[in-house]
Amino acid sequence: MTTDVAHLPNASLRGRNAPASPIRKLMPYANAARARGIHIHHLNIGQPDFATPAPILDAIARFDRRTLAYAPSQGLPEAVAAWATYFQQACGVDVPEDQIIVTAGGSEAIAFAMMAVADPGEEILVFDPSYTNYIGVAACAGVTLRGLLLEAGDDYALPSPGQIRAALTPRTRAILLCNPNNPTGAVYGEQDLRLLLDVVEEAGIMLIVDEVYRELVFDGLPRTSVLAIPGAMRHAILVDSISKRFNACGARIGCITSAHAGVMTAALRFAQARLSAPTVEQLALVPMLSDPETYTASLAAQYERRRDIVLGALGEMPEITHSRPHGAFYIIVGLPVEDAEDFARWMLEDFSAGGETVMVAPLKGFYVTPGLGANEARLAYVLGDEDLDRAVRLLGDGLDRYRTLRRDEGAIP
Amino acid sequence: MTTDVAHLPNASLRGRNAPASPIRKLMPYANAARARGIHIHHLNIGQPDFATPAPILDAIARFDRRTLAYAPSQGLPEAVAAWATYFQQACGVDVPEDQIIVTAGGSEAIAFAMMAVADPGEEILVFDPSYTNYIGVAACAGVTLRGLLLEAGDDYALPSPGQIRAALTPRTRAILLCNPNNPTGAVYGEQDLRLLLDVVEEAGIMLIVDEVYRELVFDGLPRTSVLAIPGAMRHAILVDSISKRFNACGARIGCITSAHAGVMTAALRFAQARLSAPTVEQLALVPMLSDPETYTASLAAQYERRRDIVLGALGEMPEITHSRPHGAFYIIVGLPVEDAEDFARWMLEDFSAGGETVMVAPLKGFYVTPGLGANEARLAYVLGDEDLDRAVRLLGDGLDRYRTLRRDEGAIP
User: Fold this and answer.
1) What is the mean pLDDT of residues B238-251?
2) Which of A69, A78, B33, B104 has its CA 20 to 30 A from that of B197?
C-alpha cells in the first residue's frame, strides 16, 4: 500500500461546512486557564448547576434487568406511556401513544423533525438568533436554514405574517420556533403560535416547535404549548427533552410527537435506523415524567430570581445592552466591543480578578444569517445566586479592562 | 385555523423512502402470537440472550454524580481513554485519543462515517447482503448505497479487485465492509482488507469497516482489524460498538476512529450537533473496555458451539441451503419457499407446535439491490443451546407444514 497524499480524499462538504460549536470551541482556552489555577464562572453553556432529582438517580441505581437490552425503536412502552402522562399533566392534552417516539435527547428529535419534513437542498425557516445546534443538525441533514431576523429592541417579537410569508421560498418545508427561546429568553404566546400555524397551513408546510424549556416562564406568563391548540398538531411537530426541566442533560432522553401520520411514520423509520434510545435512562425518567409538577413547580421561580439578579447587575452597566428575558435561562447581551469572540477568548487568556474569570458564549454562531451578532454574547444563568452576581460583575470588570487596553492600542476611538 | 387536507404537506422523500426495519416490521404479528399464549423463539434480532457483565451493571448502580450532566461531545475523558486501552488490548494498536469519538452505539458511528465521507446524492459501495440498518442510515443521510453481490455458494468471499473497481462510479466516496459480517457470518482476513485498501487508495476514496463483532470469530481464525494494518487508517474509518461483545446493546455506546484528520474533524462537528452520548453508560463501560479479554475470551467459544448446533440441526434438513459462518452470530438460510417474508409471517400467525413458534428475519430487506433475497432469511443464534436446537427444528417443522399447505393451494408444484 502506498500512502499517496494526492489520493487522500477530502471529507464531505457537509463535514467541512458543519459549524464547530461556538459554545465549545473556546474550551481549549478555558482548559488552559484552569491549568493556570483560574476559577472560571461558566455562563457559556446551558448545563444547569442544579442537582438531578433523586427519583432519576435512584431509578438509575435500581436498574435490575439481567440484560441491558435494546429498547424498541419507538421507546420502551413504559417510557412512551410516561411521556403521554407528562403531556397530560403539563399541557392538559391526551397524546395518543402511537404519536410519541422517545429520542436520544431533544437533539435527535430535532434531527428527526428536520429529516422528516425536508430533503437535502430544501429549506427550513428559523428566527435569528437561533439555537446554534439547529445549524449543526441541518448541516448533517443537508438542509438549508434561512434566518429571519428578530430584533433585540423589539424583545424578539415575531414579525408580521406578511414578513414571515415573504421569507418563505418555494423550497421552504417548515418553520422552526424554539419556545421559550434559546438564546433570547423570549416567550411566545398562543397568538404567536396561531399566527405561525396560519402561515404554515396556508403555505402547505409544517411548524416545528422546540419546547424543551416549556416550564421555565416568568412574570406570571402562561405556559403555551402548541400541543394545546386544537387541531394544530396535524401541521405541527413538537420537539421535547427532559434535559433542562429535570436537570438531566446527560440522560439523552427526548421526544418527538405530531399528528401528521407521514411525519411520524418517517420519524419511526429514522428511529429504527438507529435502533434505540438508551434503555436505563428511558426507565429512569418514568417517575419524573409521571409526576412532573413536584419538581418543575419551583424551578421557574428559581430561574426567575436568577434572571432578576442578572438584570440587577446589568442595570449598573449602561454600556451593556440587553432585552428582558421572560423564560428559559439565557440572556443576550450587546457588548461595547467589535468582536465578542475576541473578548470572550481574552477573558479566558488574559483576564482574571481574584483568581476568577467568566466564560460567555459569543453569539455570532447563533445566527444563521452571516455577519450578525459580532458584538453579542449569550449568558446562561446556571449558577447559584452569589456566584451569578459575582460572575456578571466580573464580566463588567473584564469589559472595562479590555476596552481600556483596546483603546490604548487605538482599536477603540 | 382551517384543517385543509389539500394543504397538508407530504413527509420528505427520504422519510417516505427510508425502509421500515425488516427485522421489526413483523413485530405486530409477534405481539399477536404472544397474546394468544404462543411462546416465540426469537432468531430474528441480534439481541444476545447472555446476561450483561456484572462490572457494567455495577458501574451503572454506582453512578454517584450529583448532576447527570452533558458529557463532552467527543466523549468523557475516562471513556475516550478506555476505548484507547481497549484498542491496545484487542488490536495491539495505540490509537491517539484525539482520533477517538465516543458515539451513541455503532449506529451513530455509521451515520457519522457516512456523513463525513459523502454528501447527499453521493454513493457508498456495500456488499450485498448487507446489515439492514446501513440502508436506513443512508436514507437519513441522503446517501445512495450501491450493492455488490456476494454469493452464498462462494461463502460470501470478496470479488476480485477488478470487479470491485468496476462497481465504483464517479460518485462513490467509500466502500463499507462489516467484518465479521452481519448478516452472513463471513470473516474477512488481512488479505481481504489489504485488497480493499488498495482499491480505495487507488480510487481516492475511503474504506469504512464495521467491526462490532470483532471478537466473535470461530474455527481458530485470527481476529483481523483494519486498525492493525500499518498505514491503513489514513484511508479507513473504523466503526465500533460495545453492544455485542459485552452484551449491552441498550447502553448505546460505540466509537468512531480514523487517522484521516478531515474525517475526524467532520465527525466531531456532527458529534457537537447532538451534544453528547449518554453519560452514565460512558462511565459504566470503562471497566470492561479497560479489561476486555476477561469477558470476551470465552464468548466466541460459546457462539461457536451454538453455530455448530445450528449447523447440526440444519444438516438434517437438506431442503434448507446455507453457508458455513465463521463469525458473528448469524447464518443465512435459503428456504424452499417463494417468499420468506410470507413464511415468516405465517410462522407467527398460523403455526405453532407444542405452543411454540419461531421468528426469523426475512433477508429481502438486507439487500441494497432490489429483487434479491426473496427466499432467504437470517437466523441469529442468540438462544441457549437447547432452545436453539428446538427453534431450528421448529423452523423445519413449520417449513414442512407451510409447503404442504401451499402445495395443496397449488402455489408450489
Assistant:
1) 97
2) B104
Contacts of B340 (CB under 8 A, 6+ apart): B360, B362, B363, B364, B373, B374, B375, B376, B377
**Do both A19 and A151 map to the same domain?**
no
Beta-carbon separation of A68 and B56 below 8 A? yes
The parent domain of residue A400 ranges over 5-51+297-408
Q: Do A145 and A243 share a domain, yes or no?
A: yes
CATH for B106: 3.40.640.10
In a domain, B100, yes or no: yes
Whether B111 contacts chain A with CB within 8 A: yes
Name the domain boundary from A249, A275, A295: A295
Q: Is B61 on the interface with A (CB under 8 A)?
A: yes
- Collect all residues of chain A within an 8 Å Cβ-Cβ radius of residue B78: none
- ipTM of the assembly? 0.95
- The low-confidence residues of chain A, meaning pLDDT below 70, are 1-6, 411-413
Tell me: do A23 and A144 sit in the same domain: no
Chain A neighbours among B 354-413 (CB < 8 Å)? none
pLDDT digits (tens, 9 = 90+) for A247-263: 999 999 999 999 999 99
Cβ-based burial of A311 (10 A; exposed 0-12, middle 13-18, buried ≥19): middle
Per-residue pLDDT reduced to its tens digit, B365-378: 999 999 999 999 99
Chain A residues near residue B258 by CB distance under 8 angstroms:
none
Residue B3 has pLDDT above 60, yes or no: no
Question: Between chains, do B67 and A51 touch, taking CB under 8 Å as contact?
Answer: yes
Shared domain for A291 and A373, answered yes or no, is no
What's the pLDDT tens digit per position in B164-199?
A: 999 999 999 999 999 999 999 999 999 999 999 999
What is the number of other CB atoms lying within 10 angstroms of the CB of residue B210?
25
Nearest C-alpha neighbor of A212 from the set A171, A254, A248, A251:
A254
**Nearest residue on chain A to B51, judged by CA atoms?**
A67
Name every residue whose Cβ is closer than 8 Å to that of residue A251 and which is 6 or more positions away in sequence: A56, A105, A242, A243, A278, A281, A284, A285, B68, B278, B279, B280
Total domains in the fold of chain A: 2
Asked if residue A413 belongs to a domain, the reply is no
Task: Verify that B68 and B46 share a domain, yes or no.
Answer: no
Q: Which of B295, B322, B342 is the last residue of a domain?
A: B295
When CB atoms are compared, the residue of B13, B69, B250 closest to A250 is B69
Q: How many other CB atoms are found less than 10 A from the CB of residue A409?
A: 8
Residues B121 and B164 in one domain: yes
CB contact under 8 A, B142 and A119: yes
B55: cis peptide before it, omega within 30°?
no
